[in-house]
Design brief:
This protein is mainly alpha-helical. The chain folds into 3 domains: about 400 residues, Na+/H+ antiporter like fold, CATH 1.20.1530; about 45 residues; about 55 residues. The chain contains 21 helices and no strands. Helix 5 runs antiparallel to helix 13.
Length: about 525
């Protein structure tokens, strides 16, 4: 059954919308729904599932997702948690790779060590997309989210260096631990420099651009430029995207206008949302296609191996995270003083949040089909199916259980974020008032305008004493905004104003609604 690309695109878009709406009404994380939908599509009689090129998966999906994750990561909090992030992103990846390789050798007699290590590297990195889709909407301690996001920014680089080294050893029959370790640090260091250079170039270009659409396009091109540049010189493209995203975020606010910032955020939100949805749909489709390619007699053995390795992957993390939490504090009194041991609930949550996703999928599919001498790559189908099984097992087991676990833990609300927000608002308003006093002495400043602006600032300062907009005042303002919007619609419908005028004024009302905390409320009709 063949469909034109346009029809497939429309069908996928409609499916994504339907699944997203359904996920909000069911206690099922959207990534799981998307994978199940992909599997169901692949089982439709006559459905032709095209073979997925791994390079396309890496290039199309991974760069913008990594860049966006880095862009919206707090550099301050990333630095503050670099020890636990490093222990997970590097230490746990190495440990998982080693234990999975040993387990795979026991389950699949005759499996070469290089291919066993490649399998371990494939299933070692948890996926930020799956975790964020589930955890971000729940009341989770901020530090847990920072550690999980930080881990996902770096662990892909660790896993891919191990993976490429193991695959090269399998293909050529030559392997050197010393060369691999040196290569890891060279790849990481040079890849980071490439990302910083790309980020610097983008910021320079943004400062010379005065067109919001062009500026948004520049930010979209950034991750792909960083990825291609790093891949061209054979260094870590993952860390290039991470470094570029972090650098661009640090300088973005001074490089573009408010309109560009709002527009870029909207475009990026939509872009990453679509990529995430497509990833899991594709994952389900590919799983269905691979199942059909396995002989019926071998399927049970592969399924058993996938189940055991999935348990091993989950168990390693459950053991590693507590050790990585307590051991540094046991060895260092300074660490104990500066960073006391967190409660068992956050420790368990970090241990349990480890769903696999796009990097595991793309790495498995990227395995070469032949060795250096032209013979078929041993156990290629088995490795791919085991990897897919680990993805599905972690998504189902951990994805389904995370929400009830977090709700059962009943984490106490954190106030640090709100305290910092109040401080920022108070200090920015104070500086604004000082600037207004300075400008009021300029010849061009109209006293009436200065008086109006001073009243506006004083009103905002009074609101800060309450910590938020009082509910009564908020309801009044929302009612006024809705009335103004209805009048704009009426004038537009009567032909008194153009659509362009209505959009401009409606945008102002939208910003005002967001300012009073009503940005998600629907307008009454």
């Amino acid at each position: 059954m063949h469909f034109p690309p346009v029809v497939l695109a429309i069908a996928f878009a409609a499916l994504v919308i339907a699944l997203t709406a359904l996920a909000r009404r069911l206690p099922i994380p959207s990534p799981i729904l998307q994978v199940v939908a992909g599997i169901a599509l692949g089982l439709v009689p006559g459905m032709n599932v095209p073979e997925l090129e791994p390079d396309i998966v890496f290039f199309v999906f991974l760069p913008p997702i990594l860049w966006a994750a880095a862009f919206f990561t707090s550099l301050r909090e990333f630095k503050a948690n670099r020890r636990p992030i490093g222990l997970l992103a590097v230490g746990l990846v190495l440990a998982t790779t080693a234990v999975v390789a040993i387990t795979a050798r026991a389950l699949l007699p005759g499996l070469p060590w290089a291919i066993a290590v490649a399998l371990g590297a494939i299933v070692s990195p948890p996926d930020a997309v799956a975790a964020a889709a589930i955890v971000s909407r729940l009341p989770v301690p901020r530090r847990v989210i920072v550690v999980l996001e930080g881990e996902s920014l770096v662990n892909d680089a660790s896993a891919l260096v191990l993976y490429r080294t193991a695959v090269a050893a399998a293909v050529t029959g030559v392997f050197s631990w010393g060369e691999s370790i040196v290569r890891f640090f060279i790849d990481a260091g040079v890849g980071t420099v490439v990302g910083l250079v790309v980020g610097w170039l983008i910021i320079r270009a943004l400062k010379f651009t005065r067109e919001p659409l062009a500026e948004t396009l520049l930010t979209l091109a950034g991750p792909y430029v960083a990825w291609v540049a790093a891949e061209t010189i054979h260094v870590s493209a993952v860390l290039a995207c991470v470094a570029g995203g972090l650098y661009t975020r640090q300088h973005f606010s001074t490089a573009v206008s408010p309109v560009s910032r709002v527009q870029a955020r909207a475009v990026w939100d939509l872009f990453v949302f679509l990529l995430n949805a497509l990833i899991f749909l594709i994952l389900g489709l590919q799983f269905s296609a691979l199942i059909d390619s396995v002989p019926a007699g071998a399927l049970a053995s592969v399924a058993r191996s996938a189940a055991i390795i999935s348990l091993v992957v989950i168990a390693i993390r459950l053991v590693w995270v507590p050790i990585a939490t307590f051991l540094p504090r046991w060895l260092s009194a300074e660490t104990r003083r500066r960073d006391p041991v967190p409660g068992w609930k956050p420790i368990f949550l970090v241990s349990w949040t480890a769903m696999r996703g796009i990097v595991t999928l793309a790495s498995a599919l990227a395995l070469p089909r032949t060795l250096g001498d032209g013979t078929p790559f041993p156990y290629r189908t088995e490795v791919i199916l085991i990897s897919m099984g680990v993805i599905l097992a972690t998504l189902l087991v951990q994805g389904f259980s995370l929400s009830p676990i977090i709700k059962a833990f009943r984490f106490q609300p954190e106030h640090a974020h709100h305290d910092e927000e109040r401080l920022a608002r108070r200090e920015s308003l104070r500086r604004g008032a000082e600037a207004l006093d300075d400008m009021s002495r300029e010849g061009w400043a109209d006293p009436a305008d200065v008086s109006w602006m001073r009243s506006e600032l004083q009103d905002k300062m009074r609101l800060q004493q309450h910590g938020a907009t009082p509910e009564g005042r908020r309801k009044l303002r929302v009612g006024v905004i809705n009335a103004e919007r209805r009048m704009l619609l009426r004038l537009r419908n009567e032909g008194a104003i153009s659509d362009e005028v209505m959009r401009e004024l409606e945008t102002e009302l939208d910003y005002e609604a967001m300012r009073v905390g009503a940005g998600e409320l629907r307008s009454s009709r």
